[in-house]
Amino acid sequence: MHNTLILIALVAYTGLLFLISHFSSRKADSRSFFQGDKKSPWPVVAYGMLGASVSGVTFISVPGNVMHTNFYYMPLVIGFLAGYIIISTVLLPLYYKMNLVSIYGYLEERLGKKSYATGAVFFMISRVLGATVRVFLIVLVLYTLVPAHLNVPFLAVALLFMLIIFLYTYKGGVKTIVWTDCMQTTFTLLAVILTVTAICSQMGWSFSGMTSAVLKSDYSQWFNKDIGSSTHYIKQFLSGMFLTIATVGLDQGMMQKNLSCSTLKNAQKNMFSTSVILVIANFMFVWLGAVLVLFVQSSGISIADSDSLFGIVANEYLGTTVALFFVVGLISSSFPSAAGALTALTTSFCIDFLKLDKKSYTDKKKKKIRQTVHLAYSVLFVVMIMIFHVSKSQAVIDLVYKMASYTYGPLLGLFFFGILTKRNVRDKAVPFVAVAAPVLCWALESFSKAVFNFGFGFTLLIVNGIFTFIGMYLFSKKAT
């Protein structure tokens, strides 16, 4: 009965998605798909971007990590805020000034065609690897909800998940996503609020009682002062700042929604609002983590894996309503990431490689090409999901996460070199530099762990960007 109700809720939720998609994508053309007709309301984009920023993995992992790392995640989140400020004041004005559809068009004008192609390729690798492994983990959760006696194959669940995302995005693209993201953000936050409320009820806590219990616990500590630790608060802050610049400011998927705002001023309002909302939402997730840990300790519940903390408590101890909202919240935090990645990859391939915006094709032909690319990426997602499933190896998933994180470093170096210097780079050397930098980072990280027991954590992204910057500098000369 429990799983049946959840499946009914998911069907209803999917129906609501398609309803929003239908109304938002009417009269949509290629400009609507790529740029939302430049008419997206900035408050809608700002609120919806929270859903795009909080993936399904974050939904599960951030609360669970509190078991081992307290609130050490929060300096990273404050770094996010600093990163958003830099994006708003440096990158957005640049993108709007150049009237870009694909943000990697900046690299072509400033550095050259090889640099442009390198940036676009690294984005695609990052997005395909990062998005597909996230979708795989969510499909795994959904697969467990299917009654065993039905003998539904894993492939069928993967196909259905990607079919839903394909169908609600293939027509409207960004024009649809900015609205569906809002709905998904709402359900994600509702899942957190309902879970905390249910635990407070079972523990007999008032709001002040809950606050006191969390603050008195060791889990509310924000700052890890162990300089050798990867969660040291300065490392976390710097990592959060540069992670945001790389994965938001230099990511076609995230920037595409901002560039759908009518003016730079509205896009900046959206970005500042998003940053504040993101800090509040992430604090809600770590607070939820502390509440969950205190609940399982009080109830004598054994949790072997921190990632299963939220799911076990929500599904087994807090009643059907919370279980329903947990699953819907999990899906809500997953759809924006997958849908945004699919739309952004389609946009990047059509604009950066097919040059569709510069072709004199009819809109009907452009639409057909764009939808074919959209379908091809959807199929690629399914293929990657099945590869992860067949391998059945956590090591493979960990490797994919590592590779995806490495690929943002060269993007950081490319853009910063273009913005901070006026030097002319030898364009043909850029692809080699962009490949060498992550390899050097891997070697450096392995050496530092083996010899000094020193973990870079997310700051390896900064080192990666610096290596790329230095490499480009070595293959450049003063502008004449």
| C-alpha end-to-end distance | 73 Å
CATH superfamily: Sodium/glucose cotransporter
Q: On the 0-100 scale, what is the average pLDDT?
A: 79
Global Rg: 22 Å
The total count of helices amounts to 20
Overall geometric form: globular
CATH architecture tag: Up-down Bundle
Strand order of the largest sheet: 1-2
Low-pLDDT regions:
none
Q: Give the count of structural domains.
A: 1
Instruction: Give the helix level as a range of percent.
Output: over 70%
Structural class given helices, strands, pairing? mainly alpha
Number of strands: 2
Question: CATH topology, which one?
Answer: Sodium/glucose cotransporter
Question: How would a crystallographer describe the biggest sheet?
Answer: 2 strands, antiparallel
**What fraction of residues sit in β-strands?**
under 5%
- Helix and strand string, N-terminal first? HHHHHHHHHHHHHHHHHHEHHE
CATH top level class name: Mainly Alpha
How do you describe this structure in short?
This protein is an all-alpha fold and about 475 residues long. The protein is built from 20 helices and 2 strands.
Characterize the structure shown.
The protein has 480 residues and is an all-alpha fold. The chain has a single domain, classed as Sodium/glucose cotransporter (Up-down Bundle). 77% of the residues lie in helices and 1% in strands. It has a two-stranded antiparallel sheet. Helix 7 packs antiparallel against helix 15, helix 7 (113-145) runs antiparallel to helix 17 (394-406) and helix 8 (154-169) packs antiparallel against helix 16.
